[in-house]
Amino acid sequence: MKRNFHFLIILISIVLVAQCNLHTNKQAEAVCTKEGQVNPNGDSELALLMRQMTKHAEATKKALQAGEELPAYPSEVDAIDTAEPTNPDKHNPGFYSGTKFYLAALKALYASRKEDRAKHYEMVLNTCSSCHSVVCPGPLKKIGRLRMQDN
User: Fold this and answer.
1) 8 and 51 share one domain
2) With helix as H, strand as E and coil as C, how does the chain read?
3) Are 21 and 57 in the same domain?
């Protein structure tokens, strides 16, 4: 009798935990799959800008690999210092120094000779990696895939 009681308690616990996990997973899925949103915390101005920067880097990589001209300079990134982040704590001295290096590297890419552009493109990605390794490591794998020779 006592054994059956323990078995029943364990069975009920398993069912309750499974139901809670199912409910929580559905809530998380609903948040993550809102129209156009991939960030479960919502899409901040900075998150949207970073996605534009990624698309620009992808287009730049493709152009460099094909020997074509660079895509137009993404002037919207010049406002990176003022873009509202998802987490306001991310706007710290490390973030600001990272953005300065990124903008300098990007401008150097656009000022470089055609034969030096791949090297300068890698320098742009190095600034992204350096900042993200300190401030927000989530995108590091994606940055790695933007390299001219995928890592």
Assistant:
1) no
2) CHHHHHHHHHHHHHHHHHHHHHHHHHHHHHHHCCCCCCCCCCCCHHHHHHHHHHHHHHHHHHHHHHCCCCCCCCHHHHHHHHCCCCCHHHCCHHHHHHHHHHHHHHHHHHHCCHHHHHHHHHHHHHHHHHHHHHCCCCCHHHHHHCCCCCC
3) no
127 within domain boundaries: yes
pTM of the predicted model, to two decimals?
0.71
Residues 89-104 have a mean pLDDT of 88
Parent domain of 79:
45-145
Q: How many CA atoms lie within 13 A of 15 on its CB side?
A: 6
- Higher pLDDT: 149 or 35? It is 149
Task: Compute how many other C-beta atoms are within 10 angstroms of the C-beta atom of residue 35.
Answer: 4
